[in-house]
Amino acid sequence: MSGVEGDKYRSYLHGEGELNTTWRWGAAPNYDIVNKLFEEGRTKVWPPGSLEEKVQNLVKTWEMELFHKAALDDVKSMDFNKFTFSLNGRKALDMMEIKKLGGGYNPHLQTSLPEEYRIYDPEKETTESSHRAFLTAFPRGFALEVLKVYAGPPEIVYKFRHWGYSEGPFKGHAPTGDLVEFYGMAIFQVDEDMKIGRTEFFYDRGELLAGLLKGAAIDDSSAMEAASKCPILRKTG
């Protein structure tokens, strides 16, 4: 899978095939800023056409569709009739269960912590509030790179790194400007057309959240409200 006009890392984002796509925030997202962050901060540059590059672009495309496409019929990187998502060995969720959980970052941040210890509670966040919280915390986006591919299709096993900079408030904590990153492993089951049918992720969500909670306690309600109204932030990946 290769990118198309408008984004060199993601397919199914621009072009004639997306003319009738229903975008969650009203228009296709713009990844220019996070692509710049990715290119400046990545530790691996994979050769064009390599398995690593193909897997990296597949993951970026999948994340884009999962977060930004509102209608399942518009999703092309996965077989949504078979698709499941599981985190750290938990019960696999199908698309309806993901939607029930609120979508957005919520499936990725499931936790067994008691409610009183949940700084970010996926059971209380909506798709809108989840998206707003992390776009506010990471104004330049949250970049992804594939560090190693251990096995290729039909069962892809890879190691990844996600990173961004704490440049906006998060859950009542001031930004620090520091690098926030975490590492993990994932398994993607794909068919002969490279459509994803099953995903399994393994990582410590605390690595992400801890980096966003280092700043001093503040009232960030005004920043969150501004982010909810900003057309640029709402469309950024």
UniProtKB/TrEMBL annotation:
InterPro entries: NTF2-like_dom_sf, Pathogen-related_defense
Residue ranges the record marks as coiled coil: none
Entry protein name: Pathogen-related protein
UniProt source species: Hibiscus syriacus (Rose of Sharon)
